[in-house]
């Protein structure tokens, strides 16, 4: 499968190379590079709304690791195929433990998750400082913009309640549990563990040596799912859920211990403003995530990756 995808990407790159040749860009020598990088990742959704973005950035940053193949078609335009493994996390307790009465309903809800995403993306790159005719004539520094599309596999999980000995519980996959009644009569279908995202980013690239580049990038992903965190709709009727495990993970308001951290919530719960019994677990609206990444890139000599010449 990976070989097939690589062949498809190479075919697309070569077709774009051909278009560049036909437009008279033959003076520019197309070249390719491979990169490896890593950085931080941040989640925005029901458990970390956009108005709480600072909490996500400061309290629960997670990581990402990835590799990429980039083909420079013209002095300013490139195409990039990338595969990135991303961890996201959110926790009502962590985001609100210091001031539970600022968002009392969220603190009381007491949901949390982590999600390891596998993202396969195809992006276009526009760089502000053009390349020279040859790869060794590229600019020492250039800012750039990216826009693309990504296929994302995900699987949200949460911890079991804290064990009797005080140890933290195991992580359990949430989608099969139907925590909002998914799959039962009168409820929505189970959500997909495969979704599409739109990556948009800005970056900076530096030339280190004739064969190496260093890049720093900040990118935003809009996804087409509201279930990166397993939270979107209403609390279901407990009697409609298939088993006790589903009930446990559906409604965690009564748990005195925050399952992800093991902290005691009892004192904070006793000081909460009166919170009406909520019927909603979450709010409509898709989830997002943000990545920062530092990567190093090796330039492949043009003679190694060379597209065929297209003649009219």
UniProtKB/TrEMBL annotation:
<feature type="signal peptide">
    <location>
        <begin position="1"/>
        <end position="20"/>
    </location>
</feature>
<dbReference type="Pfam" id="PF19573">
    <property type="entry name" value="DUF6089"/>
</dbReference>
<protein>
    <recommendedName>
        <fullName>DUF6089 domain-containing protein</fullName>
    </recommendedName>
</protein>
<feature type="domain" description="DUF6089">
    <location>
        <begin position="25"/>
        <end position="154"/>
    </location>
</feature>
<dbReference type="InterPro" id="IPR045743">
    <property type="entry name" value="DUF6089"/>
</dbReference>
<dbReference type="InterPro" id="IPR011250">
    <property type="entry name" value="OMP/PagP_B-barrel"/>
</dbReference>
<keyword id="KW-0732">Signal</keyword>
